[in-house]
Amino acid sequence: MTMKNDLYLRAARGETTERTPVWLMRQAGRILPEYRALRARLSGFKELVETPELAAEVTIQPIDALDVDAAIIFSDILVVPDAMGLPYEMVEARGPLFPNVIKSAADVDKLRIADPAEHLGYVLEALRITKRALNGRVPLIGFVGAPWTILAYMVEGHGSKTFSKARGMLYREPALAHRLLEKITATTIAYLQAQVAAGAQVVQVFDSWAGILPPAHYAEFSTRYIAQICTALAPLAPVTVFAKGAWWAVADFAALPCRTIGLDWNQDPAAVRLLAGDKTLQGNLDPCALYGSREQVKAATQAMLRQFAGGPHIANLGHGVYPDTDPDNVRVFVDTVKEWRG
């Protein structure tokens, strides 16, 4: 299939591009009125995630509405524990909730290493439908949560400011934590390989709760498993690693076979560039910058772009776009990137 717009794909491979490509984490979702209209007709978030035709429709909405340079499949990182035999619920205005959590070796033993075709087939079908519908307009991104972030939810049972139960396991029962991480990683690798086979051209690993771990624990309980994922996937597709809040991990990521390193809004692109060498960097506008005036959004975007000079860059936010963001301001961000020739 001939790509009509392959800017993002080329940048993700580390190639030179005529302009900086741009997309947004969480671009498919609540900022768009067409998403809210579709969502209002359904029983809940999980119905949308688990209905391939609807997930594909939502994936494509921001391509039409915002004219971004890549599509990211509409799904959730928690489909992985669900596929492993630990189901979750998505509670309105509260977030994810696991009726059962991992507390013991027996709980870990009950988990399966998921078969992507059997247990995650709805995501793979959504990828196939989306790829056909895009017809080469832009590349398609697949994604997963990093094993540590998945463990955090499986042990804690819900979102948390501290994830103290999950972090406590790393101190009290490190061997059990590793057993759980090994199962999650095996599932994750198989799942990402299946995503690529179904049409994903780049894959991203989100470590949303990276920053709550001390550096030594992050190296032991997260980076080593992200490394396994990158090693398995790098021959198939470019891999992006985004570890929110884990600024100390950049040097370790630079040594991994990931192609792109995502930055949150507190990281200095110039400093990361010195450590990351020729890797592509992605990010890192503060999502709150999009609450400003049109002029302020444009100025903040230009300032961000100047900081990434000197190497391949994919423009994005430093985390997902917030749901109450004005779509017109998102368009200003996207248009400013497209006009930039710094």
Automatic annotation (TrEMBL):
* Signal peptide, first to last residue: none
| Sections of the chain in a coiled coil | none
Q: Which GO terms describe its molecular function?
A: uroporphyrinogen decarboxylase activity
**Domain Uroporphyrinogen decarboxylase (URO-D) residues, every copy:** 21-30, 141-157
Q: Which reaction does it catalyse?
A: uroporphyrinogen III + 4 H(+) = coproporphyrinogen III + 4 CO2
Q: Please state the Enzyme Commission number of this protein.
A: 4.1.1.37
Q: In which pathway does it act?
A: Porphyrin-containing compound metabolism; protoporphyrin-IX biosynthesis; coproporphyrinogen-III from 5-aminolevulinate: step 4/4
Q: Which Gene3D superfamilies match?
A: 3.20.20.210
Query: Which compartment or compartments is the protein found in?
Result: Cytoplasm, Cytosol
Q: Where does substrate bind?
A: 26-30, 76, 153, 208, 319
* Pfam families per UniProt: URO-D (PF01208)
Q: Per the record, GO CC terms?
A: cytosol
Query: Keywords for this entry?
Result: Cytoplasm, Decarboxylase, Lyase, Porphyrin biosynthesis
Q: Which family does it belong to?
A: Belongs to the uroporphyrinogen decarboxylase family.
Q: How does it assemble?
A: Homodimer.
The entry's function note states:
Catalyzes the decarboxylation of four acetate groups of uroporphyrinogen-III to yield coproporphyrinogen-III.
Q: What is this protein called?
A: Uroporphyrinogen decarboxylase
Query: What species is this protein from?
Result: Hymenobacter nivis
